[in-house]
Amino acid sequence: MELEDIMSNGVVLLGIIIIVVILIYAIRAIRIIRPNEKGVVERLGKYLRTWEPGLHLLVPFIDRVTKVDMRENVVDVPPQEVITKDNVAVTVDAVVYYEATDPFKLLYNVTNFYMAATKLAQTNLRNVIGEMQLDESLTSREKINVTLRNILDEATDKWGVRVVRVELQRIEPPADVTQAMHRQMKAERERRALVLEADGDRAAAIARAEGTKQSAILEAEGRATAIKEIADAERQQKILLAEGESQAIKNVFSAIHEGGPTDDLLAVRYIDALKYVANGNATKIFMPLELQGLGNVVASVGEIFQTSQEKPAAKE
């Protein structure tokens, strides 16, 4: 019985050992690659394959997997002093954003990518800033960012990394240079204010002159319109008067030829006219042929002629 118990216990222990070994193997063999990662598999120190995200199995104690983060990462470039082209020392720092494109190159072509990228960014930042004047470096951040990104992207391509963008955090000149720049900026702002004020005064003067001009033009146009209307009214009045006189003459002419009471009135008018004609200085006498009652007219004319003859005799 004791032998059977011992054998029974050995079988149970062996089963337990086998189960434990299987569990350890399963734990060591199963690998899960997350969506933001890729796995580089080595077998006995030699590159075997690159795993995509998902569930994978490897041979424990023979294969080894290294996970590479494929997300965008950042390298903080520490501040450093850079000499500009016009010999001004400025303090510059930046950040570099990158992402892995080839896990194999990132693991085997560079020992410490973070340190290598930091040193590379520092040296190229000194080169880019050193080729610029101070004013240009302060106002050309975008140009510096693009230039530095292109340089770093080309240099890190063999490391299996793509530089996404580079951002300058600060470009800080010395204190005395900063004060001089502030004074210059203040003077420039005051000059702009004076220029704007002068432009405003000039625009106001022009506007006032234009207003005066328009007012004079409108006043002259009003006067011209009034004169034109007055002239039109006078012309209309004269036309009406002429038409009235024309109608009156027509009426008189008709009365003369048709006869009637008007003949006596015309005879009187003719006699009055003859007084001025026969005042002693006239040598000719005009007699109207249209008058009726020629005898009365002749008698009147004789009396007027006799009177005009007596007056010079009396004077003698």
Helices and strands in order:
Blueprint: H1 2-29, E1 30-33, E2 37-43, E3 46-51, E4 54-57, E5 63-69, E6 72-83, E7 89-100, H2 103-108, H3 113-130, H4 134-139, H5 141-155, E8 161-172, H6 175-258, H7 262-277, H8 294-315
Antiparallel strand pairs: 1-4, 2-3, 2-5, 6-7, 7-8
| Beta-strand content bin | 15-25%
Biggest sheet strand line-up: 3-2-5
- Compute the separation of the termini in Å: 211 Å
Rounded Rg: 63 Å
Helix content, binned percent: 55-70%
- Here the CATH topology of the largest domain equals Tetrahydropterin Synthase, Chain A
Would you give an account of this structure?
Strands 3-2-5 form a three-stranded antiparallel sheet. Helices cover 62% and strands 20% of the residues. Helix 3 (113-130) packs across helix 5 and helix 7 (262-277) runs parallel beside helix 8. With 316 residues, it is α+β, with helices and mostly antiparallel strands. Strand 6 and strand 7 form a beta hairpin. It has helices spanning 2-29, 103-108, 113-130, 134-139, 141-155, 175-258, 262-277, 294-315; strands at residues 30-33, 37-43, 46-51, 54-57, 63-69, 72-83, 89-100, 161-172.
